[in-house]
Specification:
3 helices; 81% helix; single chain; mainly alpha
C-alpha cells in the first residue's frame, strides 16, 4: 500500500508541476502591475476557459499533494 501511495504521490507531483507551468502569467512586469490594479478597481470578470480549468486543477492537485505527503510520512513513521 505504501508503494502505491508513493507512486501516486509522484504522479500528482508531476501533474502539479505541469499545471503550474501551463498557467499564463498574471502580470507582465511594471506595466502589468499598473494595469492589474486598474482591473481590480474596475471589477474585471472572472477568468474563463482554460485559465479557470488550470486554476481548479492547481487547487485540486495541491490539496491531493499535501494529503498524500502527510499519509506517506505517517505510514513511513509507523512502519
Amino acid at each position: 500500500m505504501a508503494v502505491a501511495l508513493k507512486i501516486l504521490l509522484v504522479i500528482v507531483s508531476i501533474g502539479l508541476i505541469l499545471v503550474v507551468l501551463l498557467q499564463s502569467g498574471k502580470s507582465a512586469g511594471l506595466s502589468g502591475s499598473i494595469a492589474g490594479g486598474a482591473e481590480q478597481i474596475m471589477g474585471k470578470a472572472k477568468a474563463r476557459g482554460v485559465d479557470a480549468l488550470l486554476n481548479r486543477l492547481t487547487v485540486i492537485l495541491a490539496v491531493a499533494f499535501m494529503v498524500l505527503t502527510i499519509v506517506v510520512a505517517y505510514l513511513l513513521r509507523v512502519a
